[in-house]
Amino acid sequence: MKSLLALTTAMGAAHASSLVDICTDAYIKAALPAEDTFQGISMISGSVSTVLHSNVSISSSNFFPTATISYCDVTFNYTHIGRNDRVALTYWLPAPADFQNRFLTTGGEAYEINEGSGTSGSLPGGVMYGAVSGLTDGGFNGQSFDDVFLLANDTVDWQNTFMFGYQGIHEMMEIGRELTRNVYNTGEDKVYTYYQSCSEGGREGWSQAQRYGFDYDGIIVGAPAFRFAHQQINHLVPNVVTQTMNYYPPPCELEVIVNATIAACDPLDGRADGVIARSDLCKLHFNLTSLIGAPYYCAASSGGSGLGLGFSKRQSMGATPAQNGTVTAEAVQLVQTLLAGLKDSQGRQAYLYYQPGADFDDVETTYDSQTDSWSLSIDGNGGEFVARFLNLQDVSSLSSLDNVTYDTIRDWMQLGWTMYEDTLMTHNPDLSVLQQAGGKILHFHGEQDPSVPTASSVHYYEAVRKIMFPNETLNTSAAALGEFYRLYLVPGMAHCGTNSEQPNGPFPQTNMAVMIDWVENGVVPVTLNSTVLQGDNEGEHQQICAWPLRPLWSNNGTTMNCVFDQASYDTWIYDFDAYKLPLY
Ligand SMILES: *[C@@H]1O[C@H](CO)[C@@H](O)[C@H](O)[C@H]1NC(C)=O
Ligand SMILES: *[C@@H]1O[C@H](CO)[C@@H](O)[C@H](O)[C@H]1NC(C)=O
Ligand SMILES: *[C@@H]1O[C@H](CO)[C@@H](O)[C@H](O)[C@H]1NC(C)=O
Ligand SMILES: *[C@@H]1O[C@H](CO)[C@@H](O)[C@H](O)[C@H]1NC(C)=O
Ligand SMILES: *[C@@H]1O[C@H](CO)[C@@H](O)[C@H](O)[C@H]1NC(C)=O
Ligand SMILES: *[C@@H]1O[C@H](CO)[C@@H](O)[C@H](O)[C@H]1NC(C)=O
Ligand SMILES: *[C@@H]1O[C@H](CO)[C@@H](O)[C@H](O)[C@H]1NC(C)=O
Ligand SMILES: *[C@@H]1O[C@H](CO)[C@@H](O)[C@H](O)[C@H]1NC(C)=O
Ligand SMILES: *[C@@H]1O[C@H](CO)[C@@H](O)[C@H](O)[C@H]1NC(C)=O
Ligand SMILES: *[C@@H]1O[C@H](CO)[C@@H](O)[C@H](O)[C@H]1NC(C)=O
Ligand SMILES: *[C@@H]1O[C@H](CO)[C@@H](O)[C@H](O)[C@H]1NC(C)=O
């Protein structure tokens, strides 16, 4: 409980009216949350620093449009009492005249807990809407979480793991919201509390929704890397499939399969624009076997990053020779095995995969110029997770996948699930607290994400629906859920970004404005506002359907309707019967 006394004590400073007035170390020090406001947390008042930025031009990003903003960049540290640690916070404060009683919480990507404090990070996306916007370093002193996860080989730093799992973001939000109240002297007025981030930041958003539902008015989560153990270890599945089949495709062979899939499946949604909006119809109607024998050619490349590399990826591709051949039956079988999702040796479903049309970034192979052949390459994300987070060794990846089978992968997933159920898994489907507090969740995911499977988001949505509205029909429960939690699959979209191979796809760039409208004005985003950000159709507005409805164009691709189709719906539904417990 925040006492009125704490508030008035902190408000010793005079009533401020301009950015210059509030942007001083002394003013911010006086506005810090009073001691004992938050359990176990103490501000380090001597660490406060302020820098005023006027009329800064912000370039358009995937998650916000262009803008010019002025703000006070405030940084300070706090400590956990008794731990003698330092957690560094950054808040951007809009001018009092621009402040609209909003606070935006932001998270990170990959193993970062924030997106950086530059103008290309996440903070402008709040300031331009009159929100104080904050980020935390989690106490990691500028390092990535994976670099501070182990204290030594075999010894986990659980405090850092809890901070990354959910605690760090929440503390930053609580401290920032209290600071906001004090700086702008909001009195009894509500400060609307938002969250917005993608990928790992999407997982962090869910960590807040699942644990602190009473604390947020609106949470925007993109392509969440939740069900973390499965998510990370799943990156190894393509490697193990190639090893099991003893077939290592040249990258060009997979690229031509992606191209042919896009060409064949683009029009199934009723609009021929080079964008797959219905990967479910692609699954139902596109016959991959028909590609056997199709020619492919790729020129030699000196390396660099591959096509469409997702934004949580760390690997880049080495030099590759010219590749000229025809699609083999093995390559088609490899792709069909992947699209079916991981199954153990008894045929039981252990996880799921990306949608057809998405890149095969994880299926990298390595070229050996001595033998002029392609061989196993171990995916860095998956290899690191097993080596560091399961084996607890301070190494960057696995050195081999010898003897690793589908059952090994399943067992690793089970082990990671058990080890990180309460920190990183982030898949609790009970959102009752958030629902009762009136919070809203806008969850979106690229239909063509090559790094976090789109169906992973659908699986969670379906788990929430069934846990919260048992005994109800799909229509009734989806309608009830849609009052506070809506999921949108974005046609053609890659991992938290536009897709260079499907440039005409729409992107939900105005999510923050949409969420504000939902929370503060009661405007339900029945469909999600979006814009084409590149390519021939740049600037075109589109609406994205809310799951379980799916887009279908008519009138020669000029009219879009959101429809329900049982056969398409069924392609998204998985029963993970490889495990004894239900996997939400
Ligand atoms: C604040 O924390 C950061 C990160 O740990 C540290 O580099 C900095 O020295 C701290 N500043 C003060 C004044 O304690
Ligand atoms: C920022 O822009 C506004 C409007 O153009 C102008 O009035 C103001 O002087 C500018 N501030 C600074 C510090 O340049
Ligand atoms: C796949 O399509 C892209 C254009 O999107 C093209 O640049 C590339 O060469 C094609 N790849 C192959 C193997 O045909
Ligand atoms: C898929 O295509 C192959 C080769 O063109 C053909 O033999 C097979 O019957 C097709 N399968 C289906 C289900 O249409
Ligand atoms: C690929 O190989 C075939 C058969 O050797 C040849 O006819 C064709 O010209 C080659 N294509 C390219 C682009 O080199
Ligand atoms: C930790 O273990 C790895 C091998 O698992 C080893 O390469 C590394 O040297 C060890 N680090 C230390 C500090 O002992
Ligand atoms: C793989 O299995 C073979 C045969 O059981 C065994 O000889 C070898 O040591 C195993 N390799 C690893 C890395 O466990
Ligand atoms: C669902 O149906 C079962 C069996 O009819 C019943 O026992 C249970 O109370 C129902 N649950 C809810 C939440 O209505
Ligand atoms: C469920 O809703 C969809 C689309 O809104 C509609 O087409 C369908 O008929 C409904 N099903 C039932 C059983 O009411
Ligand atoms: C929808 O997006 C367009 C730009 O594509 C923007 O102009 C409009 O304000 C957005 N509407 C809402 C409600 O955010
Ligand atoms: C259908 O749309 C395509 C692409 O926009 C256009 O080229 C074609 O002329 C249209 N066909 C008709 C019958 O309007």
UniProtKB/TrEMBL annotation:
The keyword Signal applies. The keyword Nucleotide-binding does not apply. Its EC number is 3.1.1.-. Pfam families: Tannase. It comes from the Eukaryota. GO terms for molecular function: feruloyl esterase activity; metal ion binding. Residues 1-16 form the signal peptide. Keywords: Calcium, Disulfide bond, Hydrolase, Metal-binding, Serine esterase, Signal. InterPro entries: AB_hydrolase_fold, Tannase/feruloyl_esterase. Belongs to the tannase family. This is Carboxylic ester hydrolase.
